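Let's sit down with a protein and look at its sequence and fold side by side. We need material for that, and I hope you will provide a protein of your own picking. Once you have written the record down, we can walk along the chain together.

***
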Amino acid sequence: AFNGSSDVTIAGNTIGLNESGNAGIGNGVHGIDVLGSDVTIQNNVISANGQNGVHVETSTGVIEGNAIGTNALATAAIGNGRDGVYTRSPSLTIRNNTIAGQVNGVGVNI
């Protein structure tokens, strides 16, 4: 978790999947959790976590090009426990993501 951080970039990671990217080994909380200002989350695979795939409370930022709730190839669902993306930020841009397989939530919860 990044708490009170600014200018955070999280890119190119596999979070919650095994090394092959085809089975979940997620943690019991959020895959990515950012509380602060100005975040960029892009080109990650974020799946099989116990809560939200991405939980963001920031003033600005972008979530783009991620596979959330899928395997590494985005061809099968391996959902997160709650929402794919959860945010309270009206200034956050969310675009061009693949979001699937959420267990007890929705793709994007604003």
